[in-house]
Every structure is written in structure tokens, then in C-alpha cells.
Design a protein that fits this description.
- By secondary structure, this protein is α+β, with helices and mostly antiparallel strands.
- Among the domains are: 143 residues, no CATH class; 179 residues, no CATH class.
- The protein is built from 17 helices and 20 strands.
- The radius of gyration is 25 Å and the shape is globular.
- About 3% of the residues have low confidence.
């Protein structure tokens, strides 16, 4: 097969050359086709050339540091595996490794060797980027448990590398795992590290993942970067993103080249079996489906192995701590060319189309939930360990949420979120999280302060929430909300009292609807409940 021409044919289909190049830029593969760009868009060509030259400079420092790391860890008899970055660039693009975009160094260490590995990294000049503290075994006290329970790597490390009187700050993600959610994470990562193989770069041996593990890792990285990062940031506005950005085909291009190069070694049954062990079969299938849409000459032998999408081991993903693959899982062909904005709307629309609904003018109990999977509050008609109740109303001016809290003096705040498949233009997100400060009660006006903030701004509202006869009436003007909510009469909603759960130990198999600080939450809209304002339940 010809990976480059396969993708080009798909990108060009039904488009002019200029439109095709725009598609390349949107999906991050313009570097692979810079010779196509030269005649059509010379300014873009010059820009790409500058990026490649900059990458060459970065790779000069990175290559020296990768060799330095490999030699130092080998000398101290500590295992260190390079995950992608320059090792992948030299493997897939030996004639021009600078064509592959890469900014940091990604390594994997074994949990049982983490203290020795961290001490060695500190001795080599690495420090924690955010805190500037020297990397050492001491940071395990703050980060190790969280990484093992729910994460994959430590906070980002940095090091100033000097070569020939020039200096550059290099970044590192030091992993303890390649997958967020799995049982026996330490044991399984030890097995993966034991399978690693040597790759020769400029007469130096560096350790990389065995080909089957490498493909699984790249599939996980691909799904995480786009769905968990960019789409999540776009949905909740936690970071500023370019909504015109599409799925990163450069990651898929790498994977396709890897499959092509190592086709004789690859056993797809092995990939499926290992992906199941890592609770990552969904990500692998999603990646394979994307590959088959873009690289028609690629030979992928999919074994007869059923995805465990609906089994308990995958339910934790459904509740949103990772990414809502199940919302788009069967529609790869329709989403592969969607940008962040379009895919975000697709995800929200699927959540809005659910059958289960809450209705206006009906009392719902705010029940505490501490189940096998989810921690937080859910609304229900039946009272089960309730901390209060809620009712949804509306008039021509506002959406009205009436909240009654039993023993309100026990709480200092609560949070609530409102979502829609139409973007909230004020907060530039599809889901907006509000916090009502109970301690802000103004006895003169009988009001509470409500705060809403994300990466696009922060706003405080002083007269939205009033206390009347022991209830809190929150009136949110329609002008603050997307017009679709008033026009169509439904929205997505959640409410939580994080102080009830902040001291509860969180693990990968039991997740909160909010992070421990109480001000944010997993972004999968399935975690919100649909409220129907347009009709009463009786109708």
C-alpha cells in the first residue's frame, strides 16, 4: 500500500486542490504534503518549511537527550522505555525525521523502580514544570497514588539542555502507565516493559515498546488527545481551542506507516487480546475504524472478538471521566471529517435525544449516589437518601430552578450545570457550570451570589438567586442561555454538593461527577440529565 497517496486521495475527493490543502491543515498533515503545497500556496509552503526547520533544531537537542537518558538509565540498571517522539520519527521517517511534529519526550518507567528513576532524573537536571521543585522520589508522596489510580503520568517535567553553547528547555511526560483505567495497573505495565525491544538510533540503542504494545499505545494517545483533550475543552470551555481543528490525521498517518512497516510481525489477535487486558479495546476499534476510512489499502485483520462496550469494566468510561466513545462509536464515517465544533454538537445532540427525561412543574429529589461507578447527586422521583428536592419552572423572562436543601447550614456551596447542543455564546461552551455560594447570603436583599467561569472568562451574578420560605429560587435570564433552550424547551442539567464527597477516596473504578475541588466535572454529557420544559410529565 501507499499510505501517503491513500490519504491524499481521500482528502482530495470532491474538492479542489486548495480545499484539499485546507483539509490537510485542519487535520494536521500539511507537513507530509509540503511539496504539494509549494505551487498552490507558496506562503503556506514557506511556513511549513520554517516549522520543519524549527523541528530540526528541537530534534537536535532531543536526540542528544534521548541518548543521554538511555545511557544513564542503562548504567544504573533502571528500565526506561521511550514511547513516541524522536524514536518514532526515526523509525517511520528515517530520511526526514523532522517532518514529524514532536515537542516533548515521553518515557515509561516501572512503578517498582519509580523512586530510583525519579532520583536519577533529578540528578540529570529535571524539575517539575509547575512547581520548579527538583524531580526526586519525594514527589511520589504527592503524585504516585493519583497516577496509579486514575492517571498515566506525573506532572510535566522540564530540563534545560545545553549543546554547543546553545540552550533549550525540553519537556518530559514520565509515565507509569499507558492506559488510564485498568485493573492491576502496576502488574500489567511491568509485563509491557518486560516486552520492550531495542531500537538503534545513530549507533545507540534505545528501548521502545514491542510492536503490538506500541500500536495499542498510539491508539490510546490518538483517542485521548482529540476526544479527551480538544473535544472536552471545547464542550466545557476549560481551555481555549480552535474549533475548526479536526481529528489529528497525523497520528493515524504514523499508525498506518507502522502497520505497513511491521505488517509481517503484527498479529491482530494479539492486539485485541492485549487491548482487552488494558480495558482499551474501544479505543483500538475506534482507531482501526478511522484508519480504514482513510487508508483504503491498509490490511487490518479484525478478529472475531466482541467489544466489551456494555460490560461493567467499560461503564466507568460511559460516565464521562474519559471520553464518550460510545456516543460516536458506530458512526465513524460521519464524524471522521468533523471539526471540534461539529463533533461537540454531535455528542450533545445524542445526549439530548435520550428517552429518559425530567419534566417541568414536578418535584424531584436530590439523591446522594455512592454506587459501584458514580459518586454524586442524581435527580429522581423516588426519595432515596435525599438531601433536598428541586423543581424546574419557566416564564417569558427566565429559566427558574427552585432548590430546597434540608439542613442548608451544613453546606457552603453547591454546583449546577446547564448544557445544550447549541453553544452558550457568553461562555463559549456547550456546558456551563455554575456555583451558588450559600455563605454569600445577603440578609437585606435575600439573595445569594452565583459564579460561572471557564477559560473564556468569569462572571458573578448577585440577583439571580433569592431565598423565599426556605427555598432558593434561581432565575437565569434567557439571554444568558442558548436560544435553543427556550425555543425547543429542553436542556441538560446536573446538580451536586461536592462537600459531601470530597473526603471520599476516588479510584479509576468509581468516579465523581466533579473533581475534588468541586468546580469542574467529567465532560461526557451523558452524566447530565435531560430536562423537558415544553410539557408536563402528564402530557
Amino acid at each position: 500500500m501507499d499510505v501517503k497517496n491513500d490519504l491524499y486521495a481521500v482528502l482530495l475527493r470532491g474538492k479542489t486542490t486548495e480545499e484539499c490543502i485546507e483539509e490537510m491543515v485542519s487535520h494536521g498533515v500539511e507537513r507530509h504534503y509540503y511539496e504539494y503545497v509549494k505551487e498552490v500556496k507558496p506562503l503556506l509552503y514557506e511556513e511549513i518549511k520554517k516549522c520543519i526547520e524549527k523541528q530540526k533544531e528541537i530534534n537536535y537537542f532531543k536526540l542528544a537527550e534521548v541518548k543521554n537518558l538511555s545511557d544513564s538509565f542503562f548504567k544504573h540498571k533502571i528500565q526506561l522505555v521511550h514511547l513516541k517522539g524522536i524514536t518514532l520519527a526515526y523509525d517511520l521517517y528515517p530520511d526526514n525525521p523532522d517532518i514529524r511534529k514532536s515537542n516533548d519526550i515521553d518515557v515509561l518507567i516501572a512503578a517498582e523502580e519509580s523512586e530510583r528513576a525519579l532520583n536519577l532524573l533529578g540528578e540529570m537536571g529535571y524539575y517539575v514544570r509547575d512547581t520548579k521543585e527538583k524531580v526526586s522520589a519525594e514527589i511520589n508522596k504527592k503524585y504516585y497514588k493519583n497516577v496509579i489510580d486514575r492517571g498515566i503520568h506525573y506532572p510535566e517535567f522540564e530540563k534545560i539542555v545545553t549543546l554547543n553553547s546553545k540552550a533549550m528547555v525540553l519537556k518530559m511526560d514520565c509515565h507509569l502507565s499507558i492506559s488510564h483505567s485498568m485493573d492491576d495497573k502496576v502488574k500489567k505495565m511491568k509485563q509491557i516493559i518486560s516486552r520492550c525491544v531495542a531500537q538503534k538510533i545513530d549507533n545507540s540503542n534505545v528501548m521502545v515498546l514491542e510492536i503490538h504494545d506500541r500500536l495499542i499505545y498510539l491508539a490510546l494517545h490518538f483517542t485521548k488527545e482529540f476526544l479527551r483533550n480538544y473535544v472536552r475543552w471545547g464542550i466545557i470551555g476549560s481551555r481555549r481551542v480552535d474549533e475548526n481543528k479536526g481529528i489529528n490525521f497525523a497520528h493515524l498517518y504514523d499508525i498506518a506507516l507502522l502497520i505497513e512497516k511491521y505488517s509481517k510481525q503484527i498479529r491482530w489477535t494479539t492486539i485485541w487480546e492485549r487491548a482487552l487486558e488494558l480495558n482499551s479495546l474501544d479505543e483500538v476499534i475506534f482507531t482501526v475504524k478511522c484508519l480504514k476510512e482513510l487508508f483504503h489499502g491498509l490490511t487490518i485483520k479484525i478478529p472475531e472478538v466482541k467489544s466489551n462496550l456494555c460490560e461493567d469494566v467499560y461503564k466507568v468510561k460511559k460516565y464521562g471521566i474519559y471520553y464518550p466513545i460510545q456516543l460516536i462509536y458506530e458512526n465513524i464515517d460521519s464524524i471522521i471529517f468533523k471539526n471540534i465544533k461539529e463533533l461537540s454538537r454531535t455528542i450533545l445532540q445524542k445526549s439530548e435525544n435520550r428517552k429518559e427525561e425530567l419534566y417541568a412543574n414536578q418535584k424531584y429529589y436530590i439523591n446522594k449516589v455512592f454506587g459501584e461507578l458514580i459518586i454524586g447527586c442524581l435527580l429522581a422521583e423516588k426519595k432515596e437518601d435525599a438531601i433536598g428536592h428541586i423543581e424546574f419552572l419557566s416564564n417569558e423572562n427566565a429559566l427558574i430552578i427552585c432548590v430546597h436543601i434540608d439542613n442548608i447550614e451544613k453546606y457552603s456551596y453547591f454546583t449546577f450545570s446547564i448544557g445544550s447542543s447549541m453553544k452558550n455564546q457568553i461562555f463559549n461552551s456547550y456546558i456551563v457550570k455554575f456555583m451558588l455560594n450559600i455563605n454569600s447570603y445577603n440578609t437585606y436583599y435575600n439573595t445569594y451570589t452565583i459564579t460561572a467561569n471557564n477559560a473564556y472568562g468569569k462572571m458573578e451574578f448577585y440577583n439571580w438567586a433569592k431565598s423565599e420560605l426556605g427555598d432558593i429560587f434561581i432565575a437565569i435570564p434567557w439571554g444568558i442561555l442558548p436560544s435553543q433552550i427556550k425555543d425547543k424547551g429542553y436542556f441538560l442539567f446536573e446538580i451536586d454538593f461536592p462537600e459531601l464527597f470530597n473526603k471520599i477516596e476516588i479510584s479509576a473504578n468509581r468516579i465523581p461527577k466533579f473533581k475534588v475541588n468541586g468546580l469542574s466535572f467529567p465532560y461526557n454529557p451523558d452524566i447530565l440529565q435531560k430536562v423537558q420544559l415544553g410539557k408536563d410529565k402528564s402530557l
